[in-house]
Amino acid sequence: TKRFKNPKEYNLAEKNISAKKTKILSTSGMIKYAKSSTAKEFIVATETGILYPLRKENPTKTFYPAQKDAVCEYMKMINLKETGLNILIKKGYDLLQLETFFTSKPEESRAWTIPKNCTALKAAGIIHTDFEKGFIRSETVSYYDFAQNNGWANSKTSGKMRLEGKDYIVKDGDVLNIRFNT
What we know:
The chain is an alpha+beta fold. It is globular, with a radius of gyration of 19 Å. It has helices spanning 12-15, 27-36, 51-57, 73-77, 84-96, 120-127, 129-133, 143-148, 152-157, and strands at residues 41-44, 62-65, 98-105, 108-115, 135-142, 162-164, 174-180. Strand 1, helix 3 and strand 2 (62-65) form a beta-alpha-beta unit. 35% of the residues lie in helices and 23% in strands. It has 9 helices and 7 strands, in the order ααβαβααββααβααββ. The strands form 3 sheets. A 3-stranded antiparallel beta sheet has the order 6-5-7. Strands 1-2 form a two-stranded parallel sheet. Strands 3-4 form a two-stranded antiparallel sheet. The chain folds into 2 domains: 12-82, Rossmann fold, CATH 3.40.50; 97-180, Beta-grasp domain (Ubiquitin-like (UB roll), Roll), CATH 3.10.20.
């Protein structure tokens, strides 16, 4: 077993930005993932020193630090690529055939759990039965586009927001704004 002099203890839920991650990878894993991914832009939630090798190995892609001083010391010390809780949640969602969609307004953003292949109409009903009864359509944007455009207004003006009907199959990570009659 490796021994560490003066180990540091971190509370990941409060201290570390990696709690909001999509993937946690080693340096070589990040480089390989970036090379194989079709994405052109990445948010990197670790120390900024990793940006140099990422940019060198992937010159056509853009990397943004999530925070200037973001570090993941604890996970580096124990060589952890993903937390047990995240693995458990992913496996549970897969086993139960579940996905997540989001709603967002200035005062609140929420994640909602739905069955895979759920229609926009049924997703609206998960939020509130009145939304399902009076469903008109859903303003829809992918989470990636929503984040890149800093919310609804820019998603609309950039053409990333779509109007979807009741039969639209909600995709994992979609951000929805349900239009409905009361």
